[in-house]
Structure prediction request, 688 residues.
Amino acid sequence: MSDSTYLVTARKYRPLLFKEVVAQEHVTETLKNAIRLDRLAHAYLFTGPRGVGKTTAARILAKAINCTTPIADREDQAEPCRQCVSCQSFEEGRNLNIIEIDAASNNKVDDIRELRDTVRIPPQNNRMKVYIVDEVHMLTTQAFNALLKTLEEPPPHALFIFATTEPHKVLPTIQSRCQRFDFRRIAILETVERLKMVCEEESISADEASLMLIARKGDGALRDALSVFDQAVSLCGADIKNEDLIRALGVVDSDLYFQVTDAVLERNASAMIHTVDRIVRAGYDLQEFVDGLAEHLRNLLVAHTTKDLRLIEATDADRKKIATHSGLYSESVLLSLVHIVGTLASQLRSARQPRLTLEMGLLRMASLPDAVDIKAALTSLNRIERMAASGEVKIITERVVKHQVPAATDSPASPDTAPKPKREIEATAPKAPSPVAEVTAPAAPEDVAPSPKTHEPVASAEKDDPTGPDAPNDTHAPTEPEKPFEKEVPPPGLDFSTSESASHPSSAEPRNEPSIPSGPSLFGDAPAISRPRPRRDDPSNLSLAEEDDVLVLETEEEAIDHASAEMIQLRHAWQRIVDDIMVAEKQMGSFLRHAQLTAFEGNTALVSVPDDFHAKALRNERAKLAHRLTEGSGLHVERIGFRVDAPSANAIEAADDEATARETLERLCEENPAVRALVERFGGEIVW
Prediction:
């Protein structure tokens, strides 16, 4: 064994000059200028993460201040010469004028009082007495207060240098008396360059991937990276290879991260479970794996968005692989993956079952491509709007209505009497832009037994129009694109409209609606009960908010069959459901009492409600109502559709004739104490 004492790499290659300090040029250049200009402060505060050179810079500054070599003869007119007695005595640990204090173990008031007593003694054979206080944030509040006066007006021969990793714990009164320098974390590439220099000095061979791994383990601290380097040399010898180093240090291989992202691309949930099993069996730290996966996804996102591979801290081979792999994903998917991993990292720290938490997070990543890409959907919608506005696409409105074909006669079929099993209405795109390029809108119902005198519906086929498609007064071709389910004309046999609208489906005569006086009201606007009720064929009379509410009715004969058999069962079941809900939940029961089951076709029940408010209130209960209808009636009810079926004008007038509005209000107050309380509390008044 050699007689020389072994020094770890971090101590053996500790910088002795300003130029040797790695990645802190903003600090070293400022200090050198202060030495050149002889503008040294009496107190400095060095802050930053561990292992980045705070104490080292303080030692070099103290050595440069007391260096006896003239400024003009020094290197760069600031560096210590390392040849004079002062520099050599300091490097050998014999200089009594440069004092290092560990504040973690000397943090009491008595320690600061002793420092105040010794600071008055002038230096011996040196220019200044320098106090380097490491981990100064460990001082107690009383110790800080005891140091304030000395720090504010120190002797001319005293200089204080404080170093700390937690500057927020230093009292503001101390910070205000110091010049502060913030040391930054050391980049991975700069750490790799320093490691290469050490390898050359120590005659050690190491590939670039190994040095990159060591620098990444250092996490921005050069001292930590040099400690990992010593461990790697002890494990692998003078020839360090990446494969051996990965096994020795227990570091997650980068190929494992690519396997995870490949499983996301292939939507392979099984591969995710096997990946977690491999991680657990190999003994990898789950939190370290998640942090590495987050960095890998960040590299993919950077390569996809910026195309600048210099922003990725990896080897050249890994950079090319990341650039190729990033093109397989969209930006939105990568952002979602980063968000999932970020949430997973926070959950994993407090998880009682870390493996299950990791598996669930990776499974969410594997199922992510099944989600809807909102950005792509909006882009497609905007493209369709532009195409519709430019006339590149047609708007096709189509309605298929089942009906029975009348018996054939001996007379030849005419265009007015020939049976039509199906109608397709086609119109060219209008000049105005349309939100969608292809929609489905209801057309007028087909007459069961058409005759020559029967009025043709407005939306008839172009082949039935005697004037042709180019006629100037074409009343059959729509002038505006119809919106889906804006106009719903029920087929014969299931008449939801008033007698007036049923007898004149295409009438344009105005209706006499009740008007609302413009006088003052207690509630500002007139209440909803006093507003004119919408017409059945008005576009606002629409309560179908989703396509699941769409109900295609059958012809009169088939609907009557349902009314005679299945509808009876459904209505009895509906009444029982309303009574049960009225007992358990009066608010929902009151909504249901104003609703009426009117049709059943294709496992879909149509419920008529008086207004949109009732339809919106009952929409969230559709699944429960369908389930209860299935149980109560024995029929399979898959869904429930709603149709606003406001009372007709004749019914309103008849109700007004039977009782006045005041009598109606009094009757409501008698039947419902809550209504009476509201009227009395808020001063309700009649408005019509």
Notes: The domain at 188-249 is CATH 1.10.8.60 (Helicase, Ruva Protein; domain 3). The CA atoms of residues 317 and 366 lie 26 Å apart. Confidence is low (pLDDT under 50) at residues 407-562, 651-655.
